[in-house]
Amino acid sequence: MESTRKILILGVTASGKGSLAFDLAGALRGQIISVDSMKVYRRMDIGTAKPSPEKQQQIPIHLIDVAEPAESFSVDRFLDLTGRAIDAITAAGRPVIAVGGTAMYIKALLYGLFEGPGTNPDIRNRLRSEIAASGRPALHRRLAAVDPQAAQRVHPNDEKRIIRALEVHELTGRPISEFQRQWQSPPPADWTVIGLRRPKEIENHRINQRVKRMIDQGLVEEVRTLLNEPEPLSPQARAAIGYAEIIDHLNGKRTLDQAVEQIKINTRKFAKSQRTWFKTFRGVRWIDIPEDQTSQALRTRALGLLSAD
User: Fold this and answer.
1) CB–CB of 26/305 below 8 Å?
2) In-domain check, residue 69
3) 185 with 282: CB under 8 angstroms?
4) What torsion do the CA atoms of 276, 156, 166, 280 make, to the nearest 10 degrees?
């Protein structure tokens, strides 16, 4: 198996893709690139399900802890840092193993950014004001009315992408999804894309168990500590699932039990939107995982797919 090949592992949240990436990196002597819009933030560890410090010491994992929680983080910045990481990994003669569930980042990694219109500060500021007055769900409903395809892919809490989609529609009169049709082609020949799928009820159970672990590991204290930092959390960081709900709890808007239940609900909704996104991906080699499959058996199946190339 060539040492400079590039592998992408995708799947919904809590699908086991991070564990598989780690196992493959160990088997192939590769390095990992995280394709996750929230793992980029320092000190946002529990709620983003980052690999443990021990795992990060065993295998290099790029694109983790590269931004402060007070910063916004763009797709452009992701592509710049990812390009540098890929160059460094391949120069060292190691395979690249990218892993993640942030669909926009995955699309950008494989196909680049779409050629849409520029930005308009007046429109963006007005939309931000509308969100402040009416809330994100109201603008998400407006997006669903003008671009149902985009609304299916954009989470109701994802303020940045809601604003961008509505901005594109106002500027052009066309839905943003029309500008993204280059994504309908197969992935570039130098990438092997492996997708993980589990039955929906199993995925939901894994999500619920993950949320419970996060609370047990100290998610509430992690959020409290972040809120006490000198620089306030960026809107992007505050909107992250798990953090937004706990912030509401700490501000007295929810009980802890209500916040935990809302995290589960929002995460399941996010997984549904990921499944919708991934249906549009072509050239993915899907692995359907039964409930009793061990991590070792999953690694063997993935290696078999890679060896078949």
Assistant:
1) no
2) yes
3) yes
4) -10
